[in-house]
Amino acid sequence: MKKTIASLLICLSLASGILAATIQSNKKSTESASKGKHRIEIKINGIKNAKLMLGYYFDSSKYVMDTVPINNEGVAVFKGDSLIYPGVYIAILPDMSNFDFLIDKDNQEFTVETSKDDLWGTLKFNNSKINSDFISYQKYMKEKQQQVVAIQQKGRENQANPEAQKQVSDDLKSIDREVRAKWAELRTKENGNLLALLVSLVEAPSMPDFNIPENEPKKDSILWSKRYLYQKEHYWDNINLSDPRLLRTPIFNSRLRNYFTNILIQSPDSLKPEVDKFLAKTTGNKDVYQYCVSYLLNYYNKSNIMSHDDVFLHIADKYYLSGKAPWATKDLLSKLAERADRIRPNLIGKAAPNLVLESETGEYLALDQVKSKFTVVYFFEPGCSHCQLETPKLYDLYNKTRNNGVQVYAIYTQYKKDEWTKYLTEKGYDWLNVWDSNNNSNFRTLYDITSTPTIYLLDKDKKIIAKRISVETLEKILSELNSKQ
């Protein structure tokens, strides 16, 4: 595969720069959240004269915030003249074993005691009710999980027994009701503190029963639609998306990713308004807003779904290039604008940019004048090792499908005509062969060509069906499209 190095550097620096600025900004917030002081004394029985690290969660990673000595009595003290950014923190022992605990905004002076041989079993907190409740909650959830595992095992052992299967289903529903009741109790009892937030982050919407008449011919599709809409509208219930404590939990990132990956329909027309609705709920806190805008831009920039570059472009235009991302540097905005301009002309579903290029015989062939049910636009060069593998496969597919309305508009991307025409003569590729000897068409920008080979598939109206696909994927798409006609 041959790639344009400059274009690759733009993409790579863009992907790394988006979240890097956010992480650095939030690290500074962590170091000094607000005025006050913190003092967290941790005693670990069985360890002395060593080091203890204090870590925290951000995005999908863990970071070390501080390191202090463990004295001869097994005591380590984290202290300072400012409050720590509230969130879930990690005490990391010398052997890298660790335990989580909560630091909220209202009490950052407490003591912890545990034993290195049984961190969770002996963990105790003094002057930190929220952490004592956190331990009780985790023990409760562990007990319920063990009950679920036992019930599921009964189900596997009695798969042929309908009564036993019904009992398993009833028992699992009963536990689900108990756990949801516990969550509701904790949200009320903890009254908006960090534990209440964590409970809300792990709780999925409880799907109601939708009464649809049995004789309704579209019952399944109506039920799917109702469930989809309910899940989408209630996914963030009981969660304040402007709460900065979200950023210091190990749950928010995965819940955010799940929402945009698994809950929402993955078409740009569905995703773009949902992106805007979601981000509007984060504007109450600049750190959460910055993280979420950066995360979503980065997510859709790296997505493997072809149409997602439309969502990337939407976020780039509406939030970054319109001045709604004050954290973005001039360099990042410049690279982002360049990347957006390369994506804009070749979005899925849009009309492909017309090209009028010279054939090997000196005639000019316009892409939009190619009369075929499907047109494959193929960017290649003879010396590219990947092209040497893919071009013969594409030609085989062309020979199988040419009588079914498939044409190939093959663009030689280099400037050595003799090399090109000799190659065509040797290989006998008799599809539409063209080149741009003086780079007048600007095809590299119009089709975002940073590597070869690159394949686009167009419909009869020259709208883009797919892009940047392999020959194998092209064959599958053509087969699926033909089967529908």
TrEMBL record:
Residues 1-21 form the signal peptide. It comes from the Bacteria. Residues 346-485 form the Thioredoxin domain. GO terms for molecular function: isomerase activity. It is found in: Cell envelope. It comes from Acetobacteroides hydrogenigenes. PANTHER family: THIOL:DISULFIDE INTERCHANGE PROTEIN DSBE (PTHR42852:SF6). GO terms for cellular component: cell envelope. GO terms for biological process: cytochrome complex assembly. Gene3D superfamilies: Glutaredoxin (3.40.30.10). The keyword Signal applies. Keywords: Cytochrome c-type biogenesis, Disulfide bond, Isomerase, Redox-active center, Signal. This is Thiol-disulfide isomerase/thioredoxin. Its main location: other.
